[in-house]
Amino acid sequence: MTQYITVAPHETLEAKNGVIKLHGPEGFEGMRRAGRLAAEILDMLVPHVVPGVSTAELDRLVFEHMRRAGAVPATLGYRGYTHSCCISLNHVVCHGIPSEKTLKDGDIVNIDVTPVLDGWHGDTSRMYLVGDVSVKARRLVDVTYECLMIGLEQAKPGNRLGDISAAIQRHAEKHRYSVVRDFCGHGLGRLFHDSPEVVHAGRPGTGPELRPGMFFTVEPMINIGRADCKLLDDGWTAVTRDRSLSAQFEHSIGITQTGCEIFTQSPAGLDKPPY
Ligand code: MF3
Ligand code: CO
Ligand code: CO
Question: Which has the closest alpha carbon to 127: 88, 164, 153, 184?
Fold first, then answer.
């Protein structure tokens, strides 16, 4: 049985292991601001994601933007992670660590940012195309974005989390892609990773019921090849076992009376490439 708690502002910081928090207007306002900042950072990066730039340089731009906005990167110091964002290239599924490695023509790259603004977490990621990208890779990126948005169509009161998962899986598999099972979306708010776990493949009508005030991310990772991942020796970088390309988009949302509010929509309309 899923448990829910309508949280008063002073309760939002508490981990309630397994209990799903239902936030009020103050939470929506906090998430709106954090989410907008997160989206603006991804907008800002667009002209910088070009052949020759190092991923460490992009990480510095992310850090500086957050600092100027009065936010801090949730990832900095998180479980020993020492960077301001994750940058995942080509066959990297997620949690790629920024480094002196440079982007090259034809790369597809995910940048995932999580500013904490006034205690609220805005968590979002998008794919970027570096120079000339193959039709095959662009198709993966397009379908992955569609998976996210088709999933979000199911994010409304009365539906269950499994309705989102099933819609994503159905769309991915229709295109003969696979859905990564090793990583999932998550509740968030004043905590970075809270209940519930949001899996991206599953059966309709299963899982916790969606109720107004729930905050969570949807962040499907879709592979051209098999779903299996492995972790590199750095303890963070997850790659596809078969080295096939992988793509991901992420939004942070809040369930409303009638559907969902996407906190991390791009104010500039740059939600998906081409930008
Ligand atoms: N932003 C990622 C997410 O969507 C989490 C990154 S944690 C890190 O949940 F430590 F790898 F940065
Ligand atoms: Co997330
Ligand atoms: Co993220």
Answer: 88
pTM of the model: 0.98
Q: What are the tens digits of pLDDT across the range 79-137?
A: 999 999 999 999 999 999 999 999 999 999 999 999 999 999 999 999 999 999 999 99
Decide: 78 in ligand 1 pocket, CB within 6 A. Answer: yes
Any atom of ligand 1 within 6 Å of the Cβ of 245: no
CB of 133 closer than 6 angstroms to any ligand 1 atom: no
Residue 81 CA: which ligand 1 atom is closest? Answer: 10
Using alpha carbons, select from 65, 69, 64, 63 the residue that is nearest to residue 43: 65
Domains and CATH numbers, the chain: 18-262 (3.90.230.10)
- For ligand 2, the distance from its centroid to the CA atom of residue 249, given in whole angstroms, is 10
Q: Which residues contact 149 (CB under 8 A, 6 or more apart)?
A: none
Q: What is the pLDDT of residues 122-160, one digit of tens each?
A: 999 999 999 999 999 999 999 999 999 999 999 999 999
Both structure tokens of 36 = 């907008």
